[in-house]
Amino acid sequence: MLALSSSTRYFKYSYRPESPMGKAVAYAHKRWTGLSAYVLHGQMEIENNLVENAVRPFAVGLKAYLFAGSHDASEMTAAMYSFMASCKKNKVNEFEWLRDVFERIHRHKRKDLYQLLPSNWEEYRLK
Fold it and tell me: In this predicted structure, what is the pLDDT of residue 100?
Protein backbone atom coordinates (compact mmCIF):
# COMPACT_ATOMS: atom_id res chain seq x y z
CA MET A 1 0.00 0.00 0.00
CA LEU A 2 2.87 2.35 0.78
CA ALA A 3 4.36 1.80 -2.69
CA LEU A 4 1.01 2.47 -4.32
CA SER A 5 0.54 5.59 -2.21
CA SER A 6 3.92 6.98 -3.24
CA SER A 7 3.05 6.16 -6.87
CA THR A 8 -0.03 8.37 -6.69
CA ARG A 9 2.19 11.20 -5.41
CA TYR A 10 4.60 10.61 -8.30
CA PHE A 11 1.82 10.40 -10.90
CA LYS A 12 0.20 13.52 -9.50
CA TYR A 13 3.04 15.54 -11.02
CA SER A 14 3.40 13.40 -14.17
CA TYR A 15 0.13 14.43 -15.81
CA ARG A 16 -1.47 17.76 -16.56
CA PRO A 17 -4.09 18.43 -13.84
CA GLU A 18 -6.89 19.10 -16.35
CA SER A 19 -6.26 15.90 -18.35
CA PRO A 20 -8.51 12.88 -17.66
CA MET A 21 -5.58 10.92 -16.18
CA GLY A 22 -4.51 13.93 -14.11
CA LYS A 23 -8.04 14.24 -12.73
CA ALA A 24 -8.14 10.51 -11.92
CA VAL A 25 -4.79 10.61 -10.13
CA ALA A 26 -5.76 13.76 -8.20
CA TYR A 27 -9.05 12.09 -7.19
CA ALA A 28 -7.25 8.98 -5.92
CA HIS A 29 -4.56 11.00 -4.14
CA LYS A 30 -7.06 13.30 -2.43
CA ARG A 31 -9.15 10.35 -1.20
CA TRP A 32 -6.31 7.92 -0.49
CA THR A 33 -7.07 7.51 3.22
CA GLY A 34 -10.67 6.50 2.55
CA LEU A 35 -9.82 4.37 -0.47
CA SER A 36 -7.22 2.35 1.44
CA ALA A 37 -9.12 2.04 4.73
CA TYR A 38 -10.56 -1.37 3.88
CA VAL A 39 -7.03 -2.80 3.58
CA LEU A 40 -6.00 -1.45 6.98
CA HIS A 41 -9.22 -2.39 8.78
CA GLY A 42 -10.27 -5.99 8.14
CA GLN A 43 -13.84 -5.51 9.36
CA MET A 44 -14.68 -3.09 6.53
CA GLU A 45 -16.46 -4.42 3.45
CA ILE A 46 -15.04 -3.68 0.01
CA GLU A 47 -18.47 -3.61 -1.62
CA ASN A 48 -21.35 -1.24 -0.95
CA ASN A 49 -24.31 -3.48 -1.83
CA LEU A 50 -26.37 -2.24 1.13
CA VAL A 51 -26.19 1.35 -0.11
CA GLU A 52 -26.79 0.35 -3.72
CA ASN A 53 -29.86 -1.68 -2.76
CA ALA A 54 -31.21 1.25 -0.76
CA VAL A 55 -30.91 3.74 -3.64
CA ARG A 56 -31.99 1.38 -6.44
CA PRO A 57 -35.69 2.40 -6.30
CA PHE A 58 -34.68 6.02 -6.74
CA ALA A 59 -32.37 5.20 -9.62
CA VAL A 60 -35.16 3.25 -11.32
CA GLY A 61 -37.50 6.15 -10.62
CA LEU A 62 -35.27 8.64 -12.42
CA LYS A 63 -36.40 7.33 -15.79
CA ALA A 64 -40.01 7.19 -14.63
CA TYR A 65 -39.89 10.87 -13.66
CA LEU A 66 -39.01 11.76 -17.25
CA PHE A 67 -42.32 10.34 -18.42
CA ALA A 68 -44.52 11.40 -15.50
CA GLY A 69 -46.39 13.86 -17.70
CA SER A 70 -45.60 17.06 -15.83
CA HIS A 71 -43.35 18.53 -13.18
CA ASP A 72 -46.14 18.26 -10.59
CA ALA A 73 -46.72 14.60 -11.43
CA SER A 74 -43.02 13.84 -11.06
CA GLU A 75 -43.03 15.53 -7.64
CA MET A 76 -45.97 13.35 -6.58
CA THR A 77 -44.15 10.26 -7.84
CA ALA A 78 -41.06 11.24 -5.84
CA ALA A 79 -43.24 11.73 -2.74
CA MET A 80 -44.71 8.24 -3.18
CA TYR A 81 -41.22 6.75 -3.50
CA SER A 82 -40.30 8.56 -0.30
CA PHE A 83 -43.35 7.20 1.53
CA MET A 84 -42.66 3.66 0.31
CA ALA A 85 -39.01 3.89 1.42
CA SER A 86 -40.18 5.17 4.81
CA CYS A 87 -42.59 2.23 5.09
CA LYS A 88 -39.79 -0.20 4.29
CA LYS A 89 -37.46 1.47 6.81
CA ASN A 90 -40.12 1.30 9.54
CA LYS A 91 -41.11 -2.30 8.65
CA VAL A 92 -44.64 -1.22 7.70
CA ASN A 93 -46.58 -3.08 5.01
CA GLU A 94 -46.83 -0.52 2.21
CA PHE A 95 -50.17 -1.75 0.89
CA GLU A 96 -51.85 -1.79 4.32
CA TRP A 97 -50.43 1.63 5.15
CA LEU A 98 -51.59 3.20 1.89
CA ARG A 99 -55.07 1.67 2.12
CA ASP A 100 -55.46 2.82 5.74
CA VAL A 101 -54.21 6.32 4.97
CA PHE A 102 -56.61 6.68 2.03
CA GLU A 103 -59.49 5.58 4.25
CA ARG A 104 -58.63 7.90 7.15
CA ILE A 105 -56.96 10.98 5.71
CA HIS A 106 -60.20 12.89 5.06
CA ARG A 107 -61.11 12.65 8.76
CA HIS A 108 -57.80 14.01 10.01
CA LYS A 109 -57.17 17.60 10.92
CA ARG A 110 -54.16 19.17 9.28
CA LYS A 111 -52.29 19.35 12.61
CA ASP A 112 -52.77 15.59 13.14
CA LEU A 113 -51.52 14.39 9.73
CA TYR A 114 -48.18 13.41 11.30
CA GLN A 115 -50.07 10.44 12.80
CA LEU A 116 -50.42 8.96 9.32
CA LEU A 117 -46.71 8.98 8.54
CA PRO A 118 -45.23 5.49 8.30
CA SER A 119 -43.01 6.14 11.32
CA ASN A 120 -46.06 6.95 13.50
CA TRP A 121 -48.69 4.82 11.81
CA GLU A 122 -48.53 1.72 14.03
CA GLU A 123 -48.92 3.84 17.17
CA TYR A 124 -51.99 5.75 15.92
CA ARG A 125 -53.45 3.06 13.65
CA LEU A 126 -56.12 1.74 16.02
CA LYS A 127 -57.03 5.03 17.68
Answer: 94
Q: Which of 120, 74, 76 is nearest to 101 (CA)?
A: 120
- Let me know how long the chain is: 127
Beta carbons of 93 and 83 less than 8 angstroms apart:
no
Residues 45, 46, 49, CA angle at the centre, nearest 5°? 80
Q: What is the pLDDT of residue 72?
A: 87
> Tell me, what DSSP letter sits at residue 8?
H
Residues with Cβ within 8 Å of 30's Cβ and at least 6 positions away in sequence, in order, are none
Number of helical (H) and strand (E) elements in the chain, helices listed first: 7, 0
3-class secondary-structure state, position 15: coil
